[in-house]
Amino acid sequence: DAGVTQSPTHLIKTRGQQVTLRCSPKSGHDTVSWYQQALGQGPQFIFQYYEEEERQRGNFPDRFSGHQFPNYSSELNVNALLLGDSALYLCASSLGGWVSGRPDTQYFGPGTRLTVL
Amino acid sequence: GQNIDQPTEMTATEGAIVQINCTYQTSGFNGLFWYQQHAGEAPTFLSYNVLDGLEEKGRFSSFLSRSKGYSYLLLKELQMKDSASYLCAVRGGTNAGKSTFGDGTTLTVKP
Question: Which residue of chain A has the CA closest to B101?
Answer without folding.
Answer: A42
